[in-house]
Design goal:
Layout (H helix, E strand, L loop, with lengths): L1 H32 L3 E7 H11 L3 H11 L3 E5 L10 E5 H4 L5 H4 L7 E5 L2 H14 L5 E4 L4 E5 L15 H9 L3 E6 L7 H8 L13 E2 L11 H11 L3 E4 L7 H7 L4 E6 L2 H5 L3 H14 L4 E4 L10 H18 L3 E2 L12 H21 L3 H20 L4 H24 L7 H25 L3 H4 L8 H21 L3 H10 L4 H19 L12 H12 L5 H17 L6 H17 L7 H43 L1
Parallel strand pairs: 1-2, 1-11, 1-12, 2-7, 7-8, 9-10, 10-11
Antiparallel strand pairs: 3-4, 4-6, 5-6
Helix pairs in contact: 1-14, 1-17, 2-3, 3-13, 6-8, 8-9, 9-10, 12-13, 14-15, 14-16, 14-17, 16-17, 16-19, 16-24, 17-23, 17-24, 17-25, 19-24, 23-24, 23-25
């Protein structure tokens, strides 16, 4: 009785919560649609290589790349290897022979000496070495060169950043190209050295689209991260978040900079060598179109079988420009996302929908009174966290995880029935099931709507729990529904069943499927199955937003099949596969760094394509069953 009294109220709360979530999502879509400008950068070191092998100057090569669509240049902080044509290095025992007699006595045998005839380069090296090498720098002047002595062995210089090439950066700026400097980590970075080594970039700050960092840890992290933030603020440029390359201290730095950051995608030099140009183009395009990447670094391919590296890479950059523009994006100066209009009111209302759905789910288990009590407790905790501004991020993550568990389970339990359904009724129930799951997706998309999630500084937590918990809850619920008070005895009977080869093989298959399912359900999944890459590329090209395999190949076909068969314990696996599709639907919207409209289109494509495949599956099963029954009846008549 209590169940029927509260159900209309709970559904009303859920509808109001969805409308509130819709307000948040409209703001999010506006934010995403206002940021559609992509910067297309090329690597200066590769530009130099391309120029040398093409018989052109660096400026001429940059000009041709600019004509094809490149509008920025990546400048990695130079190392001693990059400067080997301008700087030569000698140990102290050899350096003494290169210096005038008047200064030979000053040479220290244990030192390493850097020689250069370029006065400006010498000043730059001195600045960098004085601030990065403990023990100071010894400056020895020759007739036409400068020698810089440091108390480090030659191998220790290998990865030490020695500043940026001023003339080349000035040339790129003069050509109207944007700059992307990438700073290296060094040992012992402090407030003084950070200020001194980054100060030369002030001369280019108007042209810098983003400041990148080269290594797995930021210079000065953790003790001097605030000082690093102060220097970046002085430059007044955003920092770059390189996708799939976590860097210690970067998330904290972005927060110190009030989330002024742009997402970056780069294909490494070694990885690029193993990709076809088409595969590289597709990867960069998807990054910009589907993951809010706004700075693309286009690395070149120097294929051994090519007869014209210049034309190959000019064509590659030109094609990349075409696909970016074809996706409705523009090429220009990438900008950080505008601040998201955060509202505790809309957030609170969106969370109420999750609590209401949780109570409805517990009612499906026959736990109406405990459900209402837990719902009120959740309301108090949720209201307190937001009202007192205490552990708000944790509360949002917990609420989002709750939505990811509750809504798919609730959707499937409302679809469950032991009676077989006709095709028309099955399609209607499938659509209703997807709609209930979509309410959960909307709730998550609103609760986690924030620039930190859009930039992927924060992420949805508990992915694997969200993929497993609904399966366990649904299994428990349907066994209880089907068996009633005999549920415990039924389970005991299954556990007491004799062990057979068939059961062992089934257990192995289920375990392997479970491992694969979980390994592909995290924020960073495993590799693709054979031919899956080609299928993804085909669907992405045809449908713009590729539907998820768990939805159109598993979820909807098996849900439609399950509805046509009705529930029996032997069909439990089919129902669980149908549930996997609903879990995937909700999970799609937990990836906040993917634009909401892309997730929406992906979900729609999964629905109609899955229904189409499901119709074929149901028709095939019914046809086979009809043939089998016909053969069976014919055999009985002959006997």
């Amino acid at each position: 009785m209590l169940r029927w009294r509260y159900q209309p109220v709970l559904w009303a709360v859920l509808i109001i919560a969805t409308l509130a979530a819709g307000v948040v999502i409209v703001n999010r879509v506006r934010l995403e649609e206002a940021n559609r400008t992509v910067t297309l950068a090329v690597d200066f070191q590769q530009v130099q290589k391309l120029a040398q092998w093409s018989g052109l100057t660096t400026r001429e090569t940059l000009s041709r790349l600019q004509q094809q669509g490149a509008n920025a240049v990546l400048f990695k902080e130079q190392t001693i290897e990059d400067l080997q044509q301008q700087v030569w290095v000698q140990p102290g025992s050899e350096a003494v022979l290169s210096l005038a007699a008047a200064v030979q006595k000053k040479v220290r045998p244990e030192y390493t000496y850097l020689f250069t005839r370029d006065r400006e380069l010498g000043e730059r090296l001195q600045l960098q070495l004085e601030n990065k090498v403990p023990g100071g720098v010894q400056v020895l002047a020759g007739n036409d060169f400068t020698a810089l002595g440091i108390p480090l062995a030659m191998p220790e210089l290998k990865d030490l950043g020695l500043g940026f090439p001023d003339r080349e950066m000035a040339m790129a700026r003069e050509m109207g190209l944007l700059l992307v400097p990438q700073v290296r980590w060094w040992y012992g970075a402090n407030a003084t050295s950070l200020a001194a080594t980054l100060r030369p970039l002030l001369a280019y700050q108007d042209s810098i689209v983003a400041l990148l960092f080269n290594d797995k840890s930021l210079p000065g992290y953790p003790a001097y991260l605030a000082n690093l933030a102060a220097q970046v603020e002085q430059l007044n440029v955003p920092v770059g978040l390189i996708e799939f390359f976590p860097q210690q201290g970067l998330s904290r730095l972005v927060m110190l900079l009030d989330k002024r950051a742009v997402r970056v995608h780069s294909i490494g030099v070694d990885e690029m060598a193993g990709l076809t140009p088409a595969a590289a183009l597709e990867r960069l395009e998807l990054a910009a179109r589907e993951r809010n990447i706004r700075l693309l670094i286009a690395r070149f391919k120097f294929a051994p079988g090519s007869t014209n590296w210049l034309q190959d890479n000019l064509h590659y950059v030109g094609e990349l420009r075409k696909v970016i523009l074809a996706d409705g994006l523009t090429i220009g100066r990438a900008e950080p996302f505008s601040p998201f209009p955060f509202s505790r009111l809309w957030l609170h209302l969106a969370g109420l929908g999750v609590l209401a759905a949780g109570v409805l789910l517990l009612m499906q288990f026959g736990l109406a009174r405990p459900g209402v009590a837990l719902g009120f407790l959740g309301l108090v905790i949720w209201t307190g966290a937001l009202g007192l501004n205490h552990q708000v991020l944790l509360a949002r993550k917990v609420m989002a995880l709750g939505a990811a568990i509750i809504f798919p389970t609730l959707a499937m339990l409302t679809a469950w029935s032991p009676a077989p359904r006709g095709l028309k009724a099955g399609i209607a129930v499938t659509l209703r099931t997807a709609l209930i799951s979509f309410l959960g997706a909307v709730a998550i998309a609103a609760i986690l709507a924030d620039n930190t999630f859009i930039l992927k500084i924060n992420e949805f937590s508990g992915v694997k729990i969200a993929f497993v918990a609904p399966l366990l809850l649904f299994t428990a619920a349907v066994i209880i529904r089907q068996e009633g008070r005999r549920a415990g005895a039924t389970l005991q009977g299954w556990l007491d069943a004799g062990l057979t080869v068939k059961l062992v093989l089934l257990a192995v298959v289920v375990a392997a499927a479970g491992v694969l399912y979980l390994s592909r359900s995290g924020n960073e999944g495993v590799g693709l199955l054979p031919f899956e890459g080609q299928l993804r590329s085909f669907l992405g090209n045809v449908l713009l937003a590729r539907p998820r395999t768990k939805e159109f190949l598993l979820g909807y076909p098996f849900l439609l099949l399950s509805l046509s068969l009705g529930y029996q314990h032997r069909y439990l696996l089919f129902w669980l596969l149908g549930l996997v599709g609903q879990i995937s639907l909700v999970n799609t919207f937990s990836h906040i760094h993917i634009p909401f409209l892309i997730s929406l289109l992906r979900t729609f494509n999964g629905l109609w394509l899955g229904l189409l495949i499901g119709l074929v599956v149901v028709w095939t099963v019914k046809l086979e069953a009809g043939v089998f029954r016909g053969d069976h009846n014919h055999g009985r008549q002959q006997s």
